């Protein structure tokens, strides 16, 4: 029986590349595994897979009766809907510990580093398995994406060393240039329906009983949103109502200016003041230096909603 290796809902590059890389490692150590995904590829992920010659992992949403290795999260809200009917055999993740539980022992690889693929590299090293050239390429790109080319406060020395080692294996001389090419793909938002943009990198969180949705768009220049910011704000209000959410946040992150404009609709009018020490104007506030949802947005929000 094969184990399915799968990342979170609305998969990002870490979830997709991590599923492929980890399934490859498992197969190399005679533990049959199949990479899977819970949603469509983002343009960035499609760019990465095409560059290194990979097909998208199998699209699969139901896992009842299957064995599953979870990648890049440990949250019920982000896992397959029927995960309770599956057997979780492992988790590799770099987020706060979520609320997934198991009834059997499992293999846990959880480290406070910038990317799940950094941990997957540690797993290859642990098992003494050489990383194939093309796999090294997608792993490297996932780390450059998650760490915003090392600018994110989540980036660690381990991530940088890992990218340097993977770049060597993949034969990529200027990995920062490739990273910028990825963020250029991410910045091409013109012509994309507003709902698709809001949902492109979106995660729901259960914060002390409050459902909070947080989307993020990372671009090279925030001016790409000038014409559509009002529509984005209207759409997050609609999404809040549709999902019965307590709050909806959309982070518009400028990776060059290194900060984010936060668009927010919430049942709690003083939320940003308590979480980030800043009041919103028309549901918008600039948060200087904020690049990371997991480190600079979620913990503060969770505390404010305690
Ligand atoms: Mn990740």
Automatic annotation (TrEMBL):
Signal peptide: none annotated. GO terms for molecular function: inorganic diphosphate phosphatase activity; metal ion binding. GO terms for cellular component: cytoplasm. Pfam families: DHH, DHHA2. Its EC number is 3.6.1.1. Its cofactor is Mn(2+). Residues 179-305 form the DHHA2 domain. Keywords: Hydrolase, Manganese, Metal-binding. This is inorganic diphosphatase. It comes from Shewanella benthica KT99.
């Amino acid at each position: 029986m094969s184990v399915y290796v799968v990342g979170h809902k609305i998969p990002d590059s870490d979830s997709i590349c991590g599923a492929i890389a980890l399934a490859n490692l498992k197969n190399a150590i005679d533990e049959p595994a199949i990479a899977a995904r819970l949603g469509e590829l983002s343009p960035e992920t499609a760019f990465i897979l095409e560059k290194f010659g990979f097909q998208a992992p199998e699209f699969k949403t139901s896992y009842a009766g299957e064995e599953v290795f979870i990648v890049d999260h440990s949250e019920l809200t982000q896992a397959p809907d029927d995960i309770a009917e599956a057997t979780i055999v492992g988790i590799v993740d770099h987020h706060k510990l979520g609320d997934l539980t198991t009834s059997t022992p499992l293999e846990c690889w959880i480290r406070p580093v910038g990317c799940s693929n950094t941990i997957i590299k540690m797993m290859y090293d642990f098992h003494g398995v050489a990383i194939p050239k093309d796999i090294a390429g997608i792993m490297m790109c996932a780390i450059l994406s998650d760490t915003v080319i090392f600018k994110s406060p989540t980036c660690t020395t381990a991530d940088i060393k890992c990218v340097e080692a993977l770049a060597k294996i993949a034969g990529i001389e200027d990995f920062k240039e490739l990273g910028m090419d990825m963020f250029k793909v991410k910045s091409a938002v013109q012509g994309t329906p507003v709902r698709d943009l809001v949902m492109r990198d979106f995660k729901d969180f259960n914060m002390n009983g409050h459902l909070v949705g947080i989307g993020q768009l990372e671009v090279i220049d925030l001016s790409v949103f000038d014409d559509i910011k009002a529509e984005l704000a209207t759409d997050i209000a609609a999404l809040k109502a549709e999902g019965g959410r307590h709050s909806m946040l959309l982070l518009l992150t400028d990776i060059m200016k290194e900060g984010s404009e936060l668009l927010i609709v919430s049942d709690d009018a003083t939320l940003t003041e308590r979480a980030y020490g800043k009041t919103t104007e028309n549901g918008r506030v600039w948060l200087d230096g904020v690049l990371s949802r997991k480190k600079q947005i979620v913990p503060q929000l969770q505390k404010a909603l305690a």
